[in-house]
Write a structure and sequence with these properties.
single chain; 120 residues; mainly alpha; two-stranded antiparallel sheet; 3 helices; 2 strands; elongated
Length: 120
């Protein structure tokens, strides 16, 4: 893979990271103590004396946001790993077999860790 293509994919990774962090920040805050961890904020639809339905809605939204938080955190982790591989000059190699990951796969999913054969 030539350097201009790597630079292009790096730029996409950085954009995806910013967008993912922006999405996370709509319902979570960065954990100041644990790098890479975010903490979902408990939604507040009204005051604490609100009706039971409002409280149930808050809990339901929080329970929806928790798994989304984990998915987005994992995406950021994968992006960071891909960026580190670029820095080390090993980007685009399958973590299972060491073969090159096809450019088509990296174009669709620049944070891919494996070739198609070893994809989960």
């Amino acid at each position: 893979m030539n350097q201009s293509k790597i630079d292009e994919l790096k730029e996409r990774l950085l954009e995806e990271k910013m967008e993912t962090e922006r999405e996370l920040s709509t319902f979570a805050e960065k954990d100041k103590k644990v790098d890479g961890n975010w903490d979902s904020k408990f939604p507040q639809f009204g005051d604490t004396t609100s009706e039971q339905d409002e409280n149930e809605d808050e809990v339901e939204e929080y329970l929806v946001e928790l798994p989304l938080e984990r998915v987005l955190e994992a995406k950021i982790k994968d992006i960071n790993e891909a960026l580190k591989k670029i820095e080390r000059g090993v980007y685009g190699r399958c973590s299972e077999c060491g073969d090159d990951i096809p450019l088509e796969r990296l174009t669709v999913n620049p944070e891919a860790k494996t070739c198609i054969e070893h994809a989960e």
